[in-house]
Amino acid sequence: MSTETINLLSPHENTKHRGLLTLTIMLATLMQVLDTTIANVALPHMQGSLGATQDQITWVLTSYILASAIMMTLISVLVERWGRKRLFIISIVGFTITSMLCGIADSLNTLVFYRLLQGIFGACFIPLSQLILLDIYPPEKHGFAFALWGMGIMIGPILGPIVGGYLTECYSWRWVFYVNVPFGILAFLGLLFFLKESVLDKSKPFDRKGFLLLSLFLTSLQLSLDRGEQLDWLDSVEIKIEVFVTLLSLYFFIAHSLTTPIPFFSWLLFKDYNFMIGLIVSFVVGVILQSTLALTPSLLQNLMFYPVVTSGLIMVPRGIGTLIAMMVIGKLVEKVDTHYLILLGFIVTGWSLNIMTTYTPLMGYGLLLGSGTLLGFGLGFIFVPLSTLAFSTLMPAQRSEAAGLYNLTRTIGGSVGIALVESFLTRSSQRNHAYLTESISPYNKAFMSTPLPANLNPFHITGLAQWEAEIIKQSSFLAYLNSFKILMVASFACAIFFFFIKKKPLA
Q1: Contacts of 27 (CB under 8 A, 6+ apart)
Q2: Non-local CB neighbours of 146 within 8 Å, separated by 6+ positions
Q3: CA proximity to 284, closest of 336, 338, 342, 226
Q4: What is the pLDDT of residue 358?
Q5: Kindly report the CA angle at 330 between 325 and 331, in degrees rounded to 5?
Q6: Mean pLDDT score of the chain, rounded to an integer?
Q7: What is the pTM of this model?
Q8: In angstroms, what CA-CA distances link 484 with 137, 452, 462, 489?
Q9: Residue 393 in contact with residue 124, Cβ under 8 Å?
């Protein structure tokens, strides 16, 4: 492996084959994004094939998320000690091999273990891609580079549900992992020939205590979020213990970081105004993104009874909207203040979520496709300007550490968002059910004034069962609409927040 070094202060001046390198890292990131969206589609088939329960099969996703979150915190350390090229190649090779191993897994425990390894290797893709783009392009081209990269990786959400549904139904769920192999080989060759190695720096000590405390915090947090809804949150002793460990480990991590000479995360990052804004908004974006990804397919399949492939096709316009936004951003990001672009993104996102609050069980495809396209467009207008803003005032030496923390924040936001949405759906559905059931009464004039057939008569066993099924459906549907409403409020709140951001980045 070549160990040719470049000057990190101005690497763009020494970069050859910039276009091919950009294409390579887009391909690597696409592989990870594609794998995530495909795996979600194939979960029911994995459950049946491996003889797992609903609770058990979620560990296929949880193990990946948990391993990825912990690994993201090590990006800076690994880049300094191993080098950017070496780390990226190891990640590509490891991800490709573990993808094949996931495909041949013959038990749930084996699959979860391989997904854990897959998450360790896959965690590096997005942070390293961002680092490389920041290094090989001059500062005035960073917005354009992120937009170009974003256009590439948005093919994943477009193709993922379609390819995943097709492979699962026509072949086997195992092919959703095998499909990563050709992408992995191409990305490996591109990195091997086009990427130069970064300068190594092994002088900075590694804060092992800080890393262990942070890992304990992330593990207990993820476990409590995943298990909370199943065990009724704080009514469960397990969840109480996990929440206690989460808070205690976070406290000790902060206390340790404030007292140690060289903390795990440099406090200089938190003094950068733009970067802190980026972290906060990245968390909210993670909540909105993952929540809508979890809500829409389940609504389509469970309450509107769409097939898996059809629901996947309905999700495609969302990716197309984001792709269009990336193309527009590539032209505007160098001409328009990034703050205004992010503001527009949140307004459009909130508008699309407002449209989603008007969904009905009998609506046509037009409303689904239109709102999905708008949502993707709005999120696309947030991603690129937000990344540009977050890294705009950081020194090159801070970028590797910042990239890991930035993506970790979005990952945590996604986990929190999914947990909150699932909990809210359950409780909102129960409240709606209780309210609607009150109308089924012998004193309701609507039932007293009009003779009803047996299948609609609430005082006949057949009719009562029919009404109960309809109430369950309606209460669940209303719960989804209420969830969209909450996300809409969060989006508009972020839009208002941006009126108070300074228009010029701090020096």
Answers
A1: 152, 183, 186, 187, 190
A2: 130, 133, 333, 383, 384, 387, 388
A3: 342
A4: 92
A5: 105
A6: 81
A7: 0.78
A8: 38, 36, 34, 9
A9: no
* pLDDT for the residue 401: 82
Phi-psi region of 451 (alpha: psi -120 to 50; beta: other; left: phi over 0): beta
Q: Would the pLDDT of 152 be above 70?
A: no
Q: Rounded to whole angstroms, how far apart are CA atoms 263 and 246?
A: 19
Residue count (the chain): 507
Calpha distance 142→200 (Å, rounded): 24
Q: DSSP string spanning 147-214?
A: HHHHHHHTHHHHHHHHHHHHHHHHT-TTHHHHTHHHHHHHHHHHHHHHPPBPPP---SPP-HHHHHHH
The answer to whether residues 191 and 24 touch, using CB atoms and an 8 Å cutoff, is yes
- The residue behind tokens 């057949």 is 462
Number of Cβ within a 10 Å radius of residue 208: 9
**CA gap 396, 32 in Å, rounded:** 26
Q: Give the confidence band of 158 by pLDDT, cuts at 50, 70, 90.
A: low
- What would the mean pLDDT of 434-458 be, rounded to a whole number? 68
Q: Determine which helix (DSSP H) or strand (DSSP E) holds 349, and give its type and residue range.
A: helix 338-356
Q: Please say if the pLDDT value at position 249 is more than 90.
A: yes
d(CA 130, CA 126): 6
Long-range CB contact pairs, 395-399, < 8 A, 24+: 396/8, 396/9, 396/134, 396/135, 397/8, 398/266, 398/268, 398/269, 399/130, 399/131, 399/134, 399/135
Residue 7 has a pLDDT of: 41
